[in-house]
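S.,

As promised, the D-glutamic acid run. Input:
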Amino acid sequence: MKINPIGVIDSGVGGLTIAKEIMKKLPQETIYYFGDTLRCPYGPRRMQEIQSFTLELVSYLSQFPLKALVIACNTATVAALEAVQKAISIPVIGVIHPGSRAAAKVTQSRRVAVIGTKTTIDSQAYVRAIAKVDPKIHVLGSATPNLIPLVESGQWDGPMAKRVIEDELQELQEQEFDTLVLGCTHFPLIENLIRAVLDPAVQIISPAEETAIDLEMVLEKLDLVEKGVGKVEHQFFTTGSPASFQTIIRKWLLLDDPSVQHVDLRDYQTSFKK
Ligand code: DGL
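Predicted complex:
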């Protein structure tokens, strides 16, 4: 029996952190993941461009019989969630609301810090989303764009990585907060390193788990949850090098022989208007 896949998109490997939680929570579901590695990072780009790239990824995945789509990227959620929801008729889930809910749940001091791309932080999307849950929470945003290339490079084990993280978090460290939201899906891959430079009392929130919970709720509501009789066959697509993508998938998702295909979006005609 064929399983209708869940589409998951990101500018690169960051969305794998969301895919991992979906696999954990909904192991009977198949994921079709598309990372736009060639054009990563999205963070420094203009909103219009991010929206247009995101729609291209969605359009490509729309050739498959998807039953839901997760925009596993904060930056793309900020720039394109509404446009994607208008463009396709399946449920579309972003990552900002789930992450905000999770942070509001755990903060005691009501001082929450958020790190992410400049686009995500400047958009104030977390400030608005957290205020919806609890308007008394003070949100401190800090853009940490240098962490994204660090994660994409896969070279985050050496002393160099520690220095980059310390530098990027320095400004934030001068302020008080008890909760830190990883407002970029790339960051859970280096969560241990981030943890090492923070006050141990700070709670780290990754939107991944809450996003998987949201997805499960939506699938249940629409009676779309797989019953576990079909064969799960995850597929990965990248606009960059399949080999380095595969290395990170192996390391992060612990899949032995993941199927990774290279996609050249220049060969692909977008199916809907941007
Ligand atoms: N993973 C992404 C996010 O959650 C974006 C990183 C980037 O492409 O700049 O924002």
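The CA atoms of residues 41 and 189 lie 16 Å apart. The chain has eleven helices and ten strands.

- D.
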